[in-house]
Amino acid sequence: MRKDLFFVVELTIYNMLFPMTNSTKRKLRELKLYRLSRALLVLDKDTILSFTRNRIREFLFKRPFTPMSVKTDKFMKVKKKAESIISYALANIVVATFTERAKTVYSDNIFSYYTFLLQSQRKTKIGVVANDMNIRTYLLNGSFFIYFTDYLRSTSGLGREYSFSIQNLDNGYVIIREKKRMATIVANRIRLQLKTILSREPEKIDIIKQLSSEFMADVLTEFPERRTVVRRALGKNIPPCIAIIMDKATKGVHLEHQERIALATFLIRKGYSDEDIHEFFKKQDDYKRRTTQYHIDWLRRNNYMVYGCKKMKTLGMCFPDQRCVAKNLKNPLQY
Prior knowledge:
Radius of gyration: 24 Å
Oligomer: single chain
Number of domains: 3
Shape: elongated
Number of strands: 4
């Protein structure tokens, strides 16, 4: 990419604060950075990964951002804005691989953050962001006027005080007088957009797998699903390779044959009962209790070993975290 292209399409602080808006997306298209693979190739990959990790820590675990050095060169400043914007998209794709509870916490914390941020802005800026999020809005005499269909779409999930039936209307527009209420509506639109993104099947590329595996153990510990056996399992030390398979199983995602063997043998070696093992497989589309019990019995009778780390890597099922590397593990049971 030519260095001067960043100056033709100037990325602003607004774009960095509101990376989900239409105007930011248009600028990324003009910079040919709209595709994640292209952005990672052109920009500083390590910086994007640092921003992404920090976003996830901030909005999922409420851990403060790690300070990053700011360079004075104008070109590098603009590039850093681009890297920050791309990290928003990348963080969303990574979080899409997490548990449903984790996704809810993440989107709710994003909602709280943008509610607070928008309340600190002038009404004119809130109106700009609203229109940029496809909420048709205009400001007149200090009040916001939102087109009724956009109001209905943007207030889904909010409290009864946002019910359409009790709002003041003027020629098809809902009148919002308080800045705080308008900020909440726009922030909720951001949350709804984010929930749609998090519900999609995540991209299966190495960067996503790498970042997902880094956080998965913490995610499964802090945001386990409600089922008792899963909670009991996640309370123990579970290596990320097995934790990812557990998470897929509890969501009902189809497990490949080798994933089933890895999970079943791990649970057997950890002393789980047959009933507990069945709980992990009940959501499989081809689950049959009798068949599953046959395989469990066979694995127990033949003293089948858990796949070693080398075998897991060969199968594409190894996602080492810092603990794995530090201990130089040979088998998931050593975690």
